[in-house]
Amino acid sequence: MYRIISKTELAEYTVQFDIEAPEVAKKARPGQFVVVRIDEKGERIPLTIADTDTGKGTVTIVVQSVGKTTGQLCSMEAGGTIRDFAGPLGNPTEMVENSTVVCIGGGLGIAPVYPIAKELKSRGNRVLSIMGARSEPFLFWEDRMRKASDEVYIATDDGSKGKKGFVTDALLDIINSGVKVDRVIAIGPTIMMKNVAKTTKPYNIKTIVSLNPIMVDGTGMCGSCRVTVGGKMKFSCVDGPEFDGHEVDFDELMARQKFYRTEEKDAMDKYTHEGGECKCLPTRS
Ligand SMILES: Cc1cc2nc3c(=O)[nH]c(=O)nc-3n(C[C@H](O)[C@H](O)[C@H](O)COP(=O)(O)OP(=O)(O)OC[C@H]3O[C@@H](n4cnc5c(N)ncnc54)[C@H](O)[C@@H]3O)c2cc1C
Ligand code: FES
């Protein structure tokens, strides 16, 4: 059992948990994730390791409530326990030295991009970060991102904070200002990562994205996280989750992400209305 040490509401439908998991904390590297199962009957879901504290033996995860399991997790409180917390899984982010790297976090993607920016900066790279969200209430961890970056740019769809527009607009501003960008790392909704890769392609800037297909076992055995990269079949859990954004078949990924929509809705309906009693969870649509 893994104990929830603390719970913090970061933004609408978005919760930070610090989980007591000393072995995972000791081994985790930026870019890796855990597979969580709340209780014996629960489904397994992948969640990125957003931070660690090896002294306290804790792992930080940031969860957005989008369906049954994430909704159930977000309703848990400090002192509660999680049945399984397997990891660290996946490959760590490839680190570079003496480079200018633009780290882009869109929405929930701010959490997984943070540990990457932090390590890149600690290795002496110049880190320019772009944080994007629909509007200001969905932004979080600006203080952490500022510490982990040389410069931070903010873009919101409605202009409520920072530049009005998408993260790609802020990225183009950086490129057009004449900064020589060696690498871009983008994490966020699939459509955002697709558009970042499209933006950097004409400039030939290496672009890394972290893919989020449906995962079940996280060990390369079940095949559910299959993605096509450079025309070849890859399993995101063991070959990724990070890949060259210019090689990813994003359209296929987006189609596969919708594959289980009926089953996901059935699971949510069954859970929230079991025994005729309504316990609807607040989720972001
Ligand atoms: C490597 C990896 C790291 C992730 N890290 C985080 C994280 O740090 N925090 C976090 O909140 N979520 C993260 N996710 C997404 C998270 O695993 C899903 O939101 C979760 O599995 C949904 O389960 P559910 O039962 O709550 O919702 P479901 O009812 O299963 O799904 C609800 C909705 O979410 C969509 N969805 C399901 N799985 C995913 C997925 N893998 N990615 C995106 N959308 C999905 C469905 O298509 C559906 O529209 C990560 C996914 C991957 C692959
Ligand atoms: S999650 Fe099963 S193969 Fe990747």
From TrEMBL:
Residues 1-95 form the FAD-binding FR-type domain. The keyword Iron applies. FAD binds at residues 62-64. GO terms for biological process: pyrimidine nucleotide biosynthetic process. It is an enzyme of class 1 (oxidoreductase). Pfam families: DHODB_Fe-S_bind, NAD_binding_1. Coiled coil: none annotated. Binds 1 FAD per subunit. Its cofactor is FAD; [2Fe-2S] cluster. This is Ferredoxin-NADP reductase. CDD domains: DHOD_e_trans_like1 (cd06219). Its EC number is 1.18.1.2. [2Fe-2S] cluster binds at residues 222, 225, 237. Keywords: 2Fe-2S, FAD, Flavoprotein, Iron, Iron-sulfur, Metal-binding, Oxidoreductase. One of its GO terms (molecular function) is flavin adenine dinucleotide binding. The keyword Metal-binding applies.
